[in-house]
Amino acid sequence: MVMNEEIGRIAGEIWHLLTERGEMSLSGVVMALNTAQSTAYMALGWLAREDKLEFVKKRRGIVVRLK
Hints:
Blueprint: H1 3-21, E1 24-25, H2 26-32, H3 37-49, E2 53-58, E3 61-66
Antiparallel strand pairs: 1-3, 2-3
Helix pairs in contact: 1-3
């Protein structure tokens, strides 16, 4: 699979994951996916660039949620 396609597929999985579970830590998102951490971060960046995510700094780290 071409890397861009894999990143897009994982971005879709992240979208569905956050739709189902709501706000999650970055590490929680990565752990919930069956992919490399780097691929998950690229997919998060893809969604962030499309202005679909909010990143919020909390006491224990950063959480992500859908806009």
